[in-house]
UniProtKB/TrEMBL annotation:
It is found in: Cell junction, Tight junction; Cell membrane. Claudins function as major constituents of the tight junction complexes that regulate the permeability of epithelia. It is a multi-pass membrane protein. Keywords: Cell junction, Cell membrane, Membrane, Signal, Tight junction, Transmembrane, Transmembrane helix. Belongs to the claudin family. The gene is Cldn16_1. InterPro entries: Claudin, Claudin16, Claudin_CS, PMP22/EMP/MP20/Claudin. This is Claudin.
Length: 188
């Protein structure tokens, strides 16, 4: 039972960590949701802004000036939290691989292997909370920005919704949290 639980938690943690990495690296956190002519598809991300022409499929991306330049708080906070969550989830995966019962590393000391699985669960839990805070922070800021424009009767012709990168970040964080619960609460 313990080995099956460990392998299940490892599979979930691996998939969720990949989701977190994809969310951090991709550039579709905010999408143009009000292009009635459907001429272009605009995505804003943590690192750049991309526009895809719907007629010919040409995609052009504008990099943000510099990583050290002044950026909106939502971008800086989300970058920091997502990168930290990625690092913690990656470290937790490495620790979890060494702590699995099916790996022969430290086979003679099962107590240490159990502590490694528990430590991996704690790291996954911490990373998941940071990733979820980063993803939700960005989503709430997009919503507040849109609500402010609507409340002031400012219509720019364009409004943004959450992109698939934002949803990937939330799904990856949730998956890491579930894997953390499996490793910390259910393994004993």
């Amino acid at each position: 039972m313990s080995a099956a639980l460990q392998v299940t938690a490892f599979g979930l943690a691996l998939l969720s960590t990949l989701f977190l990495l994809l969310a951090t690296c991709t550039d579709c956190w905010m999408v143009n949701a009000d292009d009635s002519l459907e001429v272009s598809h605009k995505c804003r991300g943590l690192w750049r802004e991309c526009v895809t022409n719907m007629q010919d499929g040409v995609r052009t991306c504008d990099q943000y000036d510099s990583i050290l330049a002044d950026h909106p708080v939502k971008i800086v906070v989300t970058r920091t939290l997502m990168i930290t969550a990625d690092l913690l989830a990656g470290l937790a995966l490495a620790t979890l691989v060494l702590g699995l019962d099916c790996i022969t590393f430290l086979k003679e000391d099962p107590c240490v292997k159990l502590k490694m699985c528990y430590g991996a669960g704690v790291m996954l839990g911490t990373g998941s909370i940071l990733g979820l805070i980063g993803s939700v922070w960005y989503a709430v800021d997009v919503y507040v920005e849109r609500a402010m424009l609507v409340s002031h009767n400012i219509f720019l012709g364009v409004h943004y919704d959450f992109g698939w990168s934002c949803w990937l970040g939330m799904a990856g964080s949730t998956g890491c949290f579930v894997a953390s619960v499996l490793l910390t609460c259910c393994l004993y």
